[in-house]
């Protein structure tokens, strides 16, 4: 080899045939010895630059081969190694956020970039076509700043040895190897989405997905290192987060509106759902390591799943719901990361629950028909229960999200068919004299803005329900000829429905403060478009009910504005 003739063999103090492990150990030792923050002696800075340059080439087999053959790491004789703006292919940072110090080392020397003070942890990033590597003073055995076992302890409540919550991870060795390889390559800038005002509004704002965002200007140094960290985090949380960058030079108004303009260094933010269903930007101010940024992102994932106790929560309700419901049963004390991610991706499409259970012998679990954990139980909007999956086993976060997304998509499709069939049956029953029961899922169709007047019969017992249904069915048939008197001229001017007043007390409270609690039968004529109503609480006879509805049709009664918009549970 000619490599050691071109590089001083004493720079790293290794033999020309040294292994990658030997090169790495030598570099780590010398970088600590000559680091400018620790070594103030004359020539230390220059020595440190030489060490970094040597390692950048020796640690990459392709660069090493090119240097040996051509005298240049890029494989082109006569040109310096590195890329424009990367200062010979290496960048150095200490700490992170406010109070951090950042430096870049290269032909131009050291430049201070951060705040004041500094952090004890530090990382190195080495660029170039052959990939990048980082080492940290607290990074443990990993050469790139995080422990692969930490992935599982964060996602599933245990490490690779944990065989509880989401199955056996013993087959994960191939993932571990490929994950390390992907992280070390750090070709991240290509996968980071450039964000403008329109993209932020349509793809990020309240869409249920957590984003890791970088704000920068082209003149700031360090962007490449930030992007490499973002690339590692995106790989660790694949499918759980997206990454993007905002150029505050070209997107100045967006940066001003979001208050994310950078100072002397780029800034890192997470679009968070930690506090509420509405997302907000939270700045990351910790040490700039993949492990710490990943933890920060994970902490800000959606929390739309309701944590419940099976012993104190009734999921067997026969009421028709607006959305299908899904519940995760696991042995974990906290909502698993996968379920939190899914609750964001399917926000406003499903109602999510999760519960901690000890084992399948729990009476509440047996009652649901679950025979293995973890399991997902689903309820269609008509209350029909399904065991969607039990004894769930996953390989990694990315595949788990994809597999469970397919499961939820299929269940959602089934729910649409059931809801469509149920609506058709309701309409048929209505024409045959059987009145539909008003619920959250059919409210818009029966008493929405397209319905001029909705006659709601509220009952508090099965006996009163039978009486109301009989009366309204008869009156609706007698009143058919009168429907033409309504200004709209539509035969659908009136809609007759029943309401279970015992379960929908808050709905009736939108009309009258007490919600007509003391009345067993109540008739409410509601005009959705105008937000007005009139109530009848007199004798429920065919004559009196017909007289009330006739006065409503003919405009002989005074309507009152509702206290608030009525909403069904």
Describe this structure in words.
It comes from Gossypium laxum. Pfam families: DnaJ. This is J domain-containing protein. With 569 residues, the chain is an alpha/beta fold. Among the domains are: 58 residues, DnaJ domain (Helix Hairpins), CATH 1.10.287; 108 residues, Glutaredoxin (3-Layer(aba) Sandwich); 105 residues, Glutaredoxin; 120 residues, Glutaredoxin (3-Layer(aba) Sandwich). It has 17 helices and 19 strands. The protein has a five-stranded mixed sheet with strand order 5-7-6-8-9, with helices on both faces. The chain has a five-stranded mixed sheet with strand order 10-12-11-13-14, with no helix packed on it. Strand 8 and strand 9 form a beta hairpin.
Unreliable residue stretches? 1-6, 75-186, 479-492
CATH superfamily of the domain at 442-561: Glutaredoxin
Query: Largest sheet, described in full?
Result: 5 strands, mixed
**Which class of secondary structure composition applies to the elements?**
alpha/beta
Q: Treating each run of at least 4 consecutive H or I residues as one helix, how many helices?
A: 17
Q: Kindly, what is the distance between the CA atoms of the first and last residues, rounded to a whole number of angstroms?
A: 77 Å
Radius of gyration: 33 Å
Strand adjacency order, main sheet:
5-7-6-8-9
- Mean pLDDT across the residues is 74
Strand proportion, as a percent range, falls in: 15-25%
The CATH topology of the domain at 442-561 comes to Glutaredoxin
CATH architecture label name of the domain at 442-561: 3-Layer(aba) Sandwich
